[in-house]
Amino acid sequence: MRVVIVGNSAAGLAAAKTFRKYDKNSELVIVSKEKGLPYSRVLLPYVLRGKLDYDKIFIRGEAYYTENNIKYVEDAVTSIDADKKELVLEENDRMSFDKLLIATGAYAVAPPIEGIKQEGVYHMWTRKDLDALGPLFDTKKSVVVLGSGFVALQAAWSARYRGLDVKVIEIADRVMPSVLDAAGGKLIAEKIKESGVELFTETVTQKIEKCDDGSFVIHLKDKEAIKADFMIVGTGVRSNIQFIEDTGITAERAILVDEYMQTNVDGIYSAGDVAAGPTTFGDKHLTHALWPTAVEMGEVAGANLAGKKIAYRGSLNMNVTQMYNVTVASMGLFNDDHIDEAYVFDMDRYDGYMKVCYKDGLVVGACLVGDSEAVKLFGKMRTIIRKGIKADCAPEKLESFLDIKIFRDRK
Predict the structure, then answer these.
(1) 3-state class (DSSP) for residue 329
(2) 255-262: long-range contacts (C-beta < 8 A, 24 or more apart)?
(3) Is residue 319 part of a domain?
(4) Looking at the structure, do residues 87 and 34 belong to the same domain, yes or no?
(5) Helices (H), ranges, 56-181
(6) 75 lies in which domain range?
(7) Residues with Cβ < 8 Å from 408, sequence gap 6 or more?
(8) Could you tell me which of 365, 340, 339 has the C-alpha nearest to residue 354?
(9) Domain end position, chosen among 233, 258, 290
(10) Would you say residue 334 lies in a domain?
């Protein structure tokens, strides 16, 4: 049997590791469009900030593939012949498979703004982006960042930490609208401004004009234009599904998979940012473009590629990062229109803002802007959210309840 995994990052590597746990002998091939050793995307801003050496981003060495009996092929898949069970490759003609995992991740996208696609405007999503931005952080003085999600604000924080003049432009009325609730967004916005970053919310970028010296003038609706030496766009990502056209594989914004990571086509699986699968809260098809989720989905896919029948328990979104001298975290459902009630913890205890959210009597989420110590509570809550265990205690006693619950479960 030949199993082919398309993708050499979180989901693909997790699948390969799990597959080899159950099947030591079948032929296993990893095909990767992105050349070079695999790396952790979440570590890129730490390199830009100067907090991590460049070589620390790599998560596998060259020997890993040989030691685990994996054939590694650097090539791009242009299409899939599902009937013949063959991949059409850009450089190496065709490759047959008995089972296939599509783990091609996502790519950064840019909004339809005039002038956004030109030299000097970058993303912060790949190692190639890191290589382009590194020298600019050393030589330039100012940057404008479009967007205020995790990636965008990490880029802005890295630039400010390195001493650059930084401006952030967000079209919504608050920052991190998909990561924090309104109160959390307000607090991190204050921290951003305190760091010296100039923040523009409810601001529409109309045109990006490049000057003769290579710098930019960014034209804004109803506001004065601003200038920058270069720009970083962090306005979202989209699943890499361009090559599955005419395959019969069902996809919307991402490839639809069931709890076994199986697509609607027999023998073809998908996992990671390219896939939409079940969630803890009962969604059948949703994409959480998060590294831990990709690993979990990859592990399930790898087991089932090896002939097991292991169901995914469903993804639970959890974001944690440190920036602007605070920890920012969120998990599950935390916006007021998705919950029944919420409890805001003592601000002094967690040195900031922390909210735990309830629905139908169950803990369903939380968000935090504050002390990193509070993240420990997130990890404990994650277990009961996924298992649907009722926290039968007053909210202020939640931490003690979880400590006792986890201790009993481990006995």
Answers:
(1) strand
(2) 255/102, 256/285, 257/285, 259/311, 259/312, 259/314, 260/300, 260/304, 260/309, 260/310, 260/311, 260/312, 261/101, 261/297, 261/300, 261/301, 261/304, 261/312, 262/304
(3) no
(4) yes
(5) 63-67, 127-139, 150-161
(6) 2-105+238-305
(7) none
(8) 365
(9) 233
(10) yes
Give yes or no: residues 201 and 276 share one domain: no
| Closest by CA position to 257, among listed 15, 13, 9 | 15
Which H or E run contains 194? helix 182-194
Are residues 154 and 225 both part of a single domain? Answer: yes
Contact 171, 140 (CB under 8 A): no
> Which of 251, 274, 305 is a domain's end point?
305
In a domain, 110, yes or no: no
Amino acid at 344: V
| Beta pairing, strands 237-239 & 106-108 | antiparallel
Q: Do 288 and 333 fall into the same domain?
A: no
Q: In this structure, what CATH number is given to the domain that contains residue 173?
A: 3.50.50.60
pLDDT in tens, the chain (411 residues): 999 999 999 999 999 999 999 999 999 999 999 999 999 999 999 999 999 999 999 999 999 999 999 999 999 999 999 999 999 999 878 999 999 999 999 999 999 999 999 999 999 999 999 999 999 999 999 999 999 999 999 999 999 999 999 999 999 999 998 899 999 999 999 999 999 999 999 999 999 999 999 999 999 999 999 999 999 999 999 999 999 988 999 999 999 999 999 999 999 999 999 999 999 999 999 999 999 999 999 999 999 999 999 999 999 999 999 999 999 999 999 988 889 999 998 777 667 888 999 999 899 999 999 888 888 888 888 888 998 888 888 887 887 877 765 445 543
* Helix count and strand count (H, E) for the chain: 10, 25
Tally Cβ neighbours within 10 Å of residue 61: 10
